[in-house]
Amino acid sequence: MTKTLLSFGHGYSARALTKLLDDTWRVIGTTRSEDKATSLMAEGVEPRIWPGADLTPALNAATHLLISAGPTEDGDPVLGKVRDEIAARRDQFQWVGYLSTTGVYGDHDGGWVDEDTPLSASTKRGQLRIDAEADWQTMGLPLHIFRLAGIYGPGRGPFSKVRNGTARRIIKQGQVFSRIHVDDIAQVLAASIAQPNPGAVYNLCDDDPAPPQDVIAHAAELLNLPIPPAIAFEDADMTPMARSFYAESKKVRNDRIKDDLGVRLLYPDYRSGLKALLAAETDAAQQS
């Protein structure tokens, strides 16, 4: 029996999930870009330029929904366009996944948070996510919320900046971030699809929250390049967006994806993840 995933904002994480789905799946993915539509088609995804395309046939076919599109000041963009159409079909969906962020927990001065921690965003971006989560929870869908830590993976590692000399080790006392390899995001989503638990919320992160400067230093060591010099947070020239990330410091627990979904992380810490990324880059260079 064919299952159909309709993926709104079919980007980096959703594309990683698609690689894990077998040939019993039909995947329809929305994008705003003609160029991205072409690349999605090459990956076996049926692209839809949206907003713009009529999604009625895709919605009629969908058994599963994945929402990666981020909220704006106007709210969730998917619900803003097709709320009624989704609500009218709620009984046909076997699984709905919403990709959120650990930013919903706000700042905890480096302390631990889990899925039961009260939501208290310290940035506007985090508050918009809280609002979007709540909006989706009103829809009566078999909803699963995935709160993602900082994402890295192929094309999103620190190596290029270390190589070209633009990497910076910004030091803020006590600052820690949680992160997650995109392949681990994909396997968590696949595990949830295989064993739905409507209403569930999952933190997606590895086992090793760490200061960001340690990650940069380790990347330089793997490349046998000089470790970039340390720059005090107060002295760093940063965009408002970059600076906002440093407004929050917390360690995120991931026990639920292991206990409830049986997930065993491929990359339980940034060291194993960076090692694998570098090995893949090296293999690709040798084959080209």
Mean pLDDT: 96
Global geometry:
globular
Q: Approximately what portion of the residues adopt beta-strand conformation?
A: 15-25%
Straight-line distance between termini = 39 Å
Rg, rounded, reads 19 Å
Structural class: alpha/beta
List segments where confidence is low: pLDDT < 50 over at least 5 consecutive residues: none
Keywords: NAD
Protein name: NAD dependent epimerase/dehydratase family protein
InterPro entries: NAD(P)-bd_dom_sf (IPR036291)
Could you explain how this protein is built, in words?
With 288 residues, the chain is α/β, with parallel strands linked by helices. The chain has helices at residues 12-18, 34-42, 56-61, 77-88, 124-137, 159-164, 182-194, 212-222, 240-245, 255-259, 270-287; strands at 3-8, 25-31, 46-49, 64-67, 95-101, 112-113, 143-148, 150-152, 169-171, 179-181, 201-204, 230-232, 251-252. The strands form four sheets. Strands 3-2-1-4-5-7-11 form a seven-stranded parallel sheet, sandwiched between helices. A two-stranded parallel ribbon has the order 6-13. α4 (77-88) links the parallel β4 (64-67) and β5 (95-101). α1 packs across α7 and α8 (212-222) runs parallel beside α11. It is globular, with a radius of gyration of 19 Å. 38% of the residues are buried. The mean pLDDT is 96.
